[in-house]
Write a structure and sequence with these properties.
Blueprint: E1 4-8, E2 13-18, H1 23-51, E3 57-67, E4 72-77, E5 82-87, E6 98-107, E7 112-117
Antiparallel strand pairs: 1-2, 3-4, 3-6, 4-5, 6-7
């Protein structure tokens, strides 16, 4: 943590620490760390997708509705420990509902990960498939 110490050199007395002095550096470091974690998580998913002969699907929990007009929800992907946004293909979802989603596309460099409903719904049209 970058701080600026205030010391009186004549009397060699310590007058405190100005924590706000380095706050910009701390915030920048947090952003870099967050982006790095996101990149490697998405890279992990990309490699799993590359290795798998079939789809990669994850159990998720609906946390909240972010945008009701677009059916956009905050979801939690259990296996990845990831909170992400998802636009529902089956219309309204209930908070706390468990759904299985597959990775539609992932691009670690662009910071992009998209999901669609998984074929765990029986391989039928997933537009109105019941939640698992």
């Amino acid at each position: 943590l970058y701080t600026e110490y205030q010391v009186d050199l004549a009397s060699n007395k310590f007058h405190g620490i100005n924590y706000k002095k380095g706050l910009g550096f701390v915030n920048a470091a947090r952003m870099v760390q967050r982006k790095s974690n996101e990149y490697w998580l998405f890279e992990y998913v990309r490699r799993q997708l590359e290795k798998s002969p079939s789809e990669i699907s994850y159990e998720t929990t609906v946390l909240a509705c972010v945008n009701p007009q677009r059916d956009q929800y905050a979801i939690f992907v259990h296996e990845l420990g990831l909170e992400h946004r998802y636009i529902s293909e089956k219309g309204q979802l209930k908070i706390g509902e468990k759904i299985f989603l597959k990775v539609a596309s992932v691009s670690p460099r662009l910071g992009m990960l998209t999901f669609t409903l998984s074929s765990k719904y029986g391989g039928k049209s997933t537009k109105f498939a019941p939640a698992a």
